[in-house]
Design goal:
Length: about 300
């Protein structure tokens, strides 16, 4: 029998529209923050000490905000919207200005993936104009690095994860596609190292733990698939989970899944259309069917 969900510490209300994405921003000595992106294009910055929104950012012309992250510190926010733009925000000293923007050309739901490569330098992977294309650029210069398009007909790219393994000179990227397959890309060589079928339906979300070499993905048929990478960077499917007691996992296809080791004072934000999925010291979950409500536990 599945264990019951933990009781919420409190509920945050007032975003005004359904929420698509959450991101914690915590800095020692400062009040913890929670960033939320709504379906009406707003980014709310919540103070978790006062449990109120400190400010509301508007930069996506009313288009849904689908992904949020911070660069180096919580004073620089990066957001992705359905207006086909990725925006950089300056939040230092109470500011809330868009300092730069990138046009992606993608009308899909694929979230960006961010990798820090050095002090003040990052790689950003995002879906491109072609439905199966992943583009990678360098930040803050916005210089193009490469474009990854599979030779096989896999359909639209649905989700991506970029990371730097210890055993490789360059970064690797995992991509989930419309045909239910996963592909592992060597970014430096612009080549597919391995490919495997994870689901009979489109892969809607994935996450990967580089230390454990294991990952999990969700799809629209309400199941979670677990898989791993072997020593030769080959994808190996392990199992499919359909929920405890023969049930189904509630809408994993719209969940933002998180893996990895949770350390003290590290908080995790997870949002699902119907359920949150994550073990951590702090969990923020959008209330199903609510208009901008979040519970933290």
């Amino acid at each position: 029998m599945a264990r019951p969900a933990p009781s919420p510490l409190y509920t945050l209300r007032g975003a005004g529209s359904p929420l698509n994405t959450l991101h914690f921003g915590c800095c020692e000595g400062d009040p913890p923050l929670l960033f939320s992106g709504s379906g009406q294009g707003s980014v709310h910055v919540w103070n978790l000490t006062t449990r109120r929104a400190e400010r509301v950012l508007e930069g996506h012309s009313g288009a849904s905000v689908t992904w949020l992250n911070t660069l180096h510190s919580r004073d620089t926010l990066i957001s992705q919207g359905r207006d086909m733009r990725v925006c950089l925000w300056d939040l230092a000293e109470g500011r809330g200005d868009v300092t730069d923007a990138l046009w992606t050309g993608s009308v899909g739901f694929c979230h960006c993936s961010l990798l820090e490569t050095g002090p003040g330098r990052w790689l950003l992977a995002h879906a491109g104009e072609a439905m199966e294309e992943v583009k990678i650029i360098e930040l803050p210069s916005k210089s193009p690095v490469c474009s990854l398009i599979p030779q096989a007909k896999l359909g639209m790219v649905m989700c991506i994860k970029l990371w730097q393994p210890d055993s490789s000179p360059g970064p690797l990227l995992l991509a989930g596609y419309e045909d239910g397959s996963l592909a592992l890309w060597d970014v430096s060589q612009r080549s597919v190292l391995s490919r495997a079928t994870a689901h009979p339906e489109p892969v809607m979300c994935l996450d990967f733990d580089p230390a454990g070499q294991r990952g999990v993905s969700g799809s629209s048929e309400k199941s979670l698939a677990s898989w791993m990478l072997d020593g030769q960077h080959r994808l190996q499917r392990l199992a499919v989970r359909r929920g405890a007691g023969g049930g189904t996992v509630g809408s994993p296809g719209v969940a933002v899944l998180g893996l990895g080791r949770v350390r003290p004072r590290v908080v995790v934000a997870v949002l699902s259309g119907r359920a949150g999925l994550k073990v951590g010291f702090m969990l923020a979950v959008g209330v199903p069917g609510g208009r901008g409500e979040m519970v933290t536990s």
